[in-house]
Amino acid sequence: MNHQCLSLLVVEDERSLSKLWAMELGDLVEATLACSLAEARERLKARAFDAILLDLHLPDGNGLELLGEVVERGDPSAVIILTGHADLDSAIQALRLGAYDFLLKPCKIGELEQRLLRIARQQSLANQNLALRQQLHIQRIDSLELIGKSPALTEARNLIGRAGASGTSVLIEGETGTGKEVAARLVHANSSRKNMAFVPVNCASLPREMAESELFGHRKGAFSGAETDRRGLVQTATGGTLFLDEVADIPLEVQAKFLRLLESNEGRRAGDSEAYRTDVRIVAATHRNLRQAVTAGRFREDLFYRLASFEIKMPNLRAIQGDIPAIAQHLLDEAAVMNASAKRFSTEALDVMRGYGWPGNVRELRNVVERAKILCDSEEIGVGHLNLPAVPTPAASSGVAMTLAEMEWGMIQTALRTHGGNKTAAARSLGISLRTLYNKLETKREPTAVMMETPKQR
Predict the structure, then answer these.
(1) How much is the pTM?
(2) Burial label, 337 (beta-carbon count in 10 A; 0-12, 13-18, 19+)
(3) Given a cut of 50, is residue 385 above it in pLDDT?
């Protein structure tokens, strides 16, 4: 199992010993050294640390003083106390004050490494728990798959597989509702990070003044209302994937911080003067044209090229009309509607869905399908349950704007022609009662426009 690189503050007056520990611990830690309490306090003012290795005996005081300050301030740092055999009582006191653990001097590097690995595992689990809590606030996603066999979807599916294995940053483009988040989750699921956290964040919903804090975290007192230290979503996603939905809405000043993150794997919390190291993959998505945003000065050009090292374009439903029946049936099967009877769509309903423009794409189709499943009292969903315009009539195809009444009348005409004038069958396909159909025909009073039903056809 891969562990994150821990930021470690070593507070030890023997600098040669501190350097030896930092060297021996290798890639496990990013070590910062301090030889006194005063120097340690300056380091802690500049940034937060995942762990602190703290000697009790320092030139300017006792390490318990610094431990008490760290605990009182609410720092999340795990403090490991270094003590001699003669100071075991002080070590026990340190544990009572809130220290993570203690080690006897001379400290064996294997024992120290074991403690730090345990801290890394615990922080990794904490990150994943935070990620799961974050996901409770996002839109429900029914399935991690792209339904359909059209060339456009096949190409998108192929690119997702290649992107997942590449490990590079990814930019997913497409209209609203085309499944960009599903694509991002599939990129994560096809990567070596699949067992780590997937942290989604809708950048458009972040308050501008809180974007930096939400994404990168903050120190206590960094701004009014910052009463405790906070880990940002970047740190929550350590080892996994951070999905930036609607990335075009990130403020320019925060874009600069993401550029540094992509270039050097470093982030910096609000209120910190020093950066922290992290390992996170960025997958971004947008329904806007980022190239135009770059030209207009709303998006950094250097960040755009970093994000767009691998681009995936999600097709809209208009481009994959042949896949609409399969997608609609999948959504119907997945829709959680209690006591629903609907199991399939009528041929007429499928024709109407194929002919509709779907400006909201799959998201709109999902809503239409769920509504139809609620309204339908039989096993087959008809045109009337969809609440969509009928297949284009001559008036619509000529470019003349149609009123809702004209659209409704067109649907009635289409249903009657399809069923040879059989009003009972037409009403069933429209999802309305026979009486309602008669009322609409009576109101319109255009009997010559439809094929009338004979008594035997009832």
Answers:
(1) 0.62
(2) middle
(3) yes
